[in-house]
Specification:
The complex is a heterodimer. By secondary structure, chain A is mostly helical. Chain A contains 32 helices and no strands. Chain B is 30% helix and 18% strand. Chain B is of the alpha/beta class. The radius of gyration of chain B is 20 Å and the shape is globular. Chain B starts with a helix and ends with a helix. In chain B, strand 11 (285-289) and strand 12 form a beta hairpin. Classes of the chains: A mainly alpha, B alpha/beta.
Chain lengths: 507, 328
Amino acid sequence: MKPMRLICVLAGTFACVLASTHAQQPALPPGIVIQSPVRPGEENTIRKALEDMRSEEAAIRVGAAMLLGKYPNPLAQQGLIQALNDPDVRVRRAAVVSLTDRTFLQIGYDPYPVLRLLNDPDVEIRRNVSYNLSTLLSYVPRIRFNQGITGLGIIEGLPDDIVDAVMGAFMDEDAIVRRNMIESFERLRQPIPERFLLRLINDPDSTVRILILPIAASRLSTELFVNAASRAVESGSPEWLQLYARLLSDHDTSLALPQLRELAKSDYREVRNEAYISALLIEPRDPRPLEIYQDLLQERLDPGQGMRFIRSISVLPSSLAEPSLRPLLTLENPQNRSYAVKSWLRALVGSPSEEVLFRLLQDDYSGVRTEVMDYLRRHTAQVSPRLMEELLFSEFVDVRRDLISLSLRLPQREQHEILMELILDQDEGVRVRAIVQFIQRQLPDWKDVALKSLRDPSYTIQRSTIDAILRQFSPDLRPFLEDVRAQLSEPSLINRIDRVLNANTPR
Amino acid sequence: MSYPSTLSFLLLALCFSLKPAARLQAVIAQPEAVRVLQLVEGEPLRRFFPGALPSLLQAASEEIGVNFSPDPVFIERFDSPLLEQYPLLYVNYGDRRDWNLSPSEFENLASYLDRGGFLVIDAGITAEFLRGNATYGQHHSFAAWEVTPQLEDMARRLFPESEFQPLPRNHPIFQIFYSGLPDTGALPEAVREFVVNEKWPQGTYSILGLHVEGRLVAIATPILALGWGKNETGQWTNTIGFRIRESAEGLDEKLREATYSGIHYEVKREDGRYDRVYCQPETVPAWVEEPNGRWRVFRYYSTSEISDYAHVFYTQLGINILAFAMLQ
């Protein structure tokens, strides 16, 4: 088998390294990228530590393993790998901690000797290895690629004893090891075998049950998932029940709805509310009589649940969504209020009244104002002269700034008027944007505007103007650019123009 | 100010015989949620650890029964008029680029602290090897015993007769609600020993305080916020590893002679003396020479139970700080 051959090659290499401690760059397992070679002078320190690794006294070997951990290079690493088989648990622990230190993990190495420690009798070692499993396994494809082995998944094709160690760790007697295994497989995007999913849903450890639930929900059939999870409902913590209720919204209605109805009777308000949200997504209905609706109005929902509830309302038919969302426009929580505004504007069949738009544009929270500006960008017909005046003279900089991009959708004459107004804005950022857009859109008189902007005392405005003009450069503009250059006194700006003029000199 | 500190002290005296939680509830018997100020220069969404303080306030509400609003009130500068309205101001040192305060900020902040306000400067303690970049101090909670030079200067200008001093290990801030360490049973043996005896003895940590007329008005800590944030399903949002000092037989001598290619820094200890910390890569201490002549290696432990433990500790310490601030 190819993987076995690889181990033999690695074992041979290891023997080579130990025998040849004078070598500056020992032979390495193929495929391992070494970013940190042995630095001059380090070799002596490492060699002494390697000698200490042969000491009769375990305490000396512990110290040597710690010291080798400070030299993330192949020479020290091979000594540490040897220490993984030490009969003394303290030495093995010291070696594992060194090898799973970030500096060592970054250099990459053959992970099989470390992975075998998933079977170590010491729980601290198993916790450490399982915690670092995803990084260790991520070396495997690189090793295989250099061996010419392709087309295998990470787990597939591992030596049998390592597959056994990895899979066995899902059922480790220690809950922390089991948690680590779940998280490592998720990081690696490796599927956890179905038999483990079904057992871990009912794991005695509550954290394991929470970790495995979304994974099981996405990988198991609805029937298997609901059957397995429903057995855990009775012992479920409020967090678990809330999560379960949320996950049920993605599943087949006939099986999920009875579960959600049960969860809606929970003693915990968060669980009941989550069940309402999921049920609403599966079975559309008027949300206003629901307890959760009152909770939202009275600001009793946490922001995440509030957002999910508003989202579930927003996907209802307009006839239900619009009247349900309207009272939420005055929520105190700014994120929820802004999400309600966004959803309400989308649910509207007709147009919002100007008074409502005025009020929303005065909102303290910029997110709300942004939603309204976004709506107006898509519905420019709604921008009456009165509303336009409100936007132009808004006390909020973000509204005036957003008006610049909104104006792009208006007829050229209106664009011209708006940008001319904003070029005189009190905020420099708005002025810069207005000038740049005026030039970029080449609105009537743009050259005059550009020349006048160059007289502005602000260097930012001068530079932005020059940059905007240069972006428009074409041979026709050469005379204009030469006029611009003649007006300038700032050398850095003159240089910018010269670079473009020189690069485009006719031959 | 809307929070009469004299009244708080009177209430505190009246409630002295009550348990801390009951005492707090009695002092803060307000129908409305208590809100905390947070200073962030620029866009609040871009602050360091945005979910940290809300999570801590939520945890404090659940644990000590005081109704904290999880949404901080943001201000951008110390001369904000909002300062007058809230008893506690939290700022992450990294959320303000420049700690050269303007005259109006000095004036307003001094008046705030004089009149009973309490300032928490998270990450105000960063060891010298973490000062090269604003983000280093956000990810390494290293127990040094001096504030950054900028804070030292700020304190000098705020209250010339006072300076940041280490809080003693028996200071009430360490035991006002939680006392001692969380259960260390799940920690690896070496980590447990270091945490109990050196890192966080009896649930304490390196906190420096600024006193004005005998009252503690401000504290600076190594970064704590990295230990506070939870997501919606109650899981911690950051992973925390431990850096612990270890030794073994004969290692002293080996370290003294070991080849070393990095830089070393002097870091102030609790006893006022200095450790010489050798960093191989920048920000990663490799070993330390202690003033008693002992050499030890820094070992890095990163596992889930360590991370969980650190979160629990930082949250307990954070709640103690909130509780202490409320009782000021």
